[in-house]
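REVIEWER CHECKLIST
Item 1: Sequence provided? yes
Item 2: Single chain? yes
Item 3: Sequence as submitted:
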Amino acid sequence: MATTVFFEEKVKCQGGQKKMNVEFGKSSYYDENSIYLTVDDKSLVMDRKTAKKFVEAAAAVGRYFGFID
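Item 4: Structure as written out by the authors:
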């Protein structure tokens, strides 16, 4: 799978007890480029409709917390 990684971190819970490996970015594996997501070694490439909803939701949460304008 040809990818461009935009995020790759071992994400830890605020409580410090739990953690997971998260990676996402752009995939050109299928005819239509889209977002791939990997969590704890489980990967998938989102269909474009779901990818759009995913980005809109992430942006909405980011705006809510003042992480983005």
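Item 5: Key structural point noted by reviewer: The first helix runs from residue 48 to 64.
Item 6: Recommendation: ____
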